[in-house]
Amino acid sequence: MPGIYVAGVGCTRFGRLEAPLLALLAEAAQQALTDAGIEEPDLIVVGTMNPEEFTGDGTLAPLFASFLGRAHTPAFRVETGTSSGAAAFFAAASAIAGGFARTALVVAGEKMTGLATPRVAEILSRMIDPTERRYGATMPALAAIVTRAYARAHHLDPEDLALIPVKNHRNGARNPLAHFQAEITVEDVLGSRLIADPLRLYEVCPISDGAAATVLTAERRPVRVAGMGQGSDHVALRHRRSLTSFRATQEAARRAYAMAGLGPKAIQVAEVHDAFTPFELINMEDLGLAEAGKAVRALLNGETALEGRLPVNPSGGLKARGHPVGASGLAQIVEIVWQLRGQAGSRQVRESRVGLAQSIGGLSSVNWVTILARD
Amino acid sequence: MEEAPKTQEEAGTPAGSIPASRCACGTVTAPPAPHCPECGGPMAPDTLPAVGEILSYTILHSPPAGFAAPLPIALVELVGGVKFLCHGHAEQVGRYRIGRQVAIEAVDGIYYFSTMTLRERIALFWRRRGEAEEKVRSVLRSVFRRSRRP
Ligand SMILES: [Zn+2]
């Protein structure tokens, strides 16, 4: 297979933003094109979850291509719920690997804060099995059910789990693009209101606007796409084999590691999907970065902190960087590129050659793992 | 001597049964589904005893429109490992534990799990039956009154 390289990256500020969706996407895209030194990509792939309902925008790919002044560039949109950004990256990389394009612009974003929170929650709940939705199940509700089962299986206290948002806010405070740039304490987490018992407000990602972009090329560049993989599972929680791990991540990781010819031990920095912060531990275990039930030990020992052995979510993660749903999967990849290039500023981890991004679609029904390497 | 047929109470299914569906591959789902979630094959109607064990649960404090807070939701493991999502009763949340045995019953087509003792469940059963009989009697009374109108 021909090589796939990341030539350029870009990302807007995440948070409650004034700019409309197309402008956010264009801002990230221009940054990535400039960073790549490429003016005219062969292909544009757009990743968004639900612009039809969030902003009333439809047929987003040609709309965006025209907005960018590239109305005649082939363009399409990819959607896998909250992992759409990673899916768009996969689609563009596949086109490069298949020889359909020499260069591709991947851009992903979402504009969510124009709607009231209950309406956003309703749109997000479309990722839930209809029978379970009929019972009032929301994303936080199902995540809470998983969290309680996981915490019980591995004897975790709320104090242990609270350390995850504390760590990720600490990283976010060093990320000028993050939605939240203030540190928080364990007391802040445990004192925040219950959303879905046992999940509290500070364990749930915010509603954000933002966009990210990458430019891919078949020409050799320092950062290479080493491995990619997708894994799927039942949408319905009641049909899942396990409540304490996500099969979709395990399968995605297996495929990505096989393609990269690497194992979990090679990973030096990781961005994982912490929309509900206890999932950070589950994800680490599903990715093979920790044994089942042992991820908490790495957290407690500081191994996943910025200066630790295996920094996890140096960007602040979805919790602190924010979660414009379509953008997050691609923003994780952008962060890994910055970390591998040594361009991550005050949140730069020690010199790394291999990094991993893991993105969850729905409640882990369509997940992606992307491994990047600096040659 | 032939054994007398067991009542539901004696058979361990105090709150009746839950409609389910079974596939030739062995997969059982509740509520019933037309197609098997594992292999896509057709499913045949089946029932499962309406008792199980709490696998995990949440108490939702920000429920969607149409639901009152706090809203308890649990994933209950039925006989044979079938996982079933249902509601709880808000006044019982203090008694929820993972692994706790619960009874499940439908109210207006929505399934609720209950941590009640057997005695409490019997009392509730008679009360509901009383309410149902009262409803029937009032309907009959109104029909009777209407029929006597000139
Ligand atoms: Zn089957």
Can you describe this structure?
The complex is a heterodimer of chains A (375) and B (150). Chain A is of the alpha/beta class and 375 residues long. Chain A is built from 14 helices and 11 strands. Chain A has a domain at 5-115 and 208-217: Thiolase/Chalcone synthase (Peroxisomal Thiolase, Chain A, domain 1, 3-Layer(aba) Sandwich). In chain A, the strands form 2 sheets. In chain A, strands 3-2-4-7-1-8-11-10-9 form a 9-stranded mixed β-sheet, with helices on both faces. In chain A, helix 4 packs across helix 14 (325-341). Chain A is globular, with a radius of gyration of 19 Å. By secondary structure, chain B is an alpha+beta fold. In chain B, 21% of the residues lie in helices and 33% in strands. Chain B has 1 helix and 8 strands, in the order ββββββββα. Chain B has one helix at residues 118-148, and strands spanning 17-23, 28-29, 43-49, 51-60, 71-77, 83-87, 101-107, 110-114. In chain B, the strands form 2 sheets. In chain B, strands 6-5-4-7-8 form a 5-stranded antiparallel β-sheet, with no helix packed on it. In chain B, strands 2-1-3 form a 3-stranded antiparallel β-sheet, with no helix packed on it. At the A-B interface, helix 5, helix 7 and strand 5 of A face strand 4, strand 5 and strand 6 of B. The site of zinc ion (ZN) has 7 residues of chain B, from loops.
In total, how many beta strands of chain B?
A: 8
Radius of gyration of chain A: 19 Å
CATH class of one domain in chain A: Alpha Beta
Number of helices of chain B: 1
Largest sheet of chain A: 9 strands, mixed
Radius of gyration of chain B: 19 Å
Secondary structure layout:
The complex is a heterodimer of chains A (375) and B (150).
Chain A: E1 5-11, H1 21-36, E2 43-47, H2 51-54, H3 60-67, E3 75-78, H4 84-97, E4 103-110, H5 117-124, H6 130-134, H7 139-153, H8 158-172, H9 186-191, E5 194-197, E6 199-200, E7 210-217, E8 223-232, H10 247-260, E9 269-271, H11 279-286, H12 295-300, H13 317-321, H14 325-341, E10 354-359, E11 366-374
Parallel strand pairs in A: 2-3, 2-4, 9-10
Antiparallel strand pairs in A: 1-7, 1-8, 4-7, 5-6, 8-11, 10-11
Helix pairs in contact in A: 4-14
Chain B: E1 17-23, E2 28-29, E3 43-49, E4 51-60, E5 71-77, E6 83-87, E7 101-107, E8 110-114, H1 118-148
Antiparallel strand pairs in B: 1-2, 1-3, 4-5, 4-7, 5-6, 7-8
The structure holds zinc ion (ZN).
